[in-house]
């Protein structure tokens, strides 16, 4: 149970990449780590929010650059 908690709650939920979690748990394959680490819905939602903001920022920058070139 401790390995599941560490992989999911302590690391993945706080933005640690699964590749790093895999190394920390001593696994040679990501598939083994995926047994212990479960992606929780809150984390998916947070990651998508971050991605959406990055896209919005990039679109704003591109629109600003186009306006300056006119």
* Tally of DSSP helical segments: 4
Order of helices and strands: HHHH
Number of strands: 0
Choose one word for the global shape.
elongated
Strand percent estimate: under 5%
Query: Helicity range of the residues?
Result: over 70%
Largest sheet: number of strands, sense, barrel closure: none
Descriptive notes:
By secondary structure, the protein is mainly alpha-helical. The protein is 76% helix and 0% strand. The chain contains four helices and no strands. The protein has helices at 2-11, 18-24, 30-36, 41-69. The radius of gyration is 18 Å and the shape is elongated. It starts with a helix and ends with a helix.
Care to give the gist of this entry?
The protein is an all-alpha fold. The chain is 76% helix and 0% strand.
SSE blueprint and pairings:
Blueprint: H1 2-11, H2 18-24, H3 30-36, H4 41-69
Annotation keywords:
single chain; 70 residues; elongated; mainly alpha; 0% strand
């Amino acid at each position: 149970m401790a390995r599941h908690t560490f992989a999911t709650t302590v690391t993945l939920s706080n933005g640690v990449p699964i590749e790093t979690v895999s190394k920390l748990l001593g696994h040679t394959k990501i598939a083994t780590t995926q047994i212990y680490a479960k992606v929780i819905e809150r984390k998916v939602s947070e990651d998508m929010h971050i991605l959406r903001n990055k896209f919005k920022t990039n679109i704003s920058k591109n629109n600003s650059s186009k306006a300056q070139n006119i």
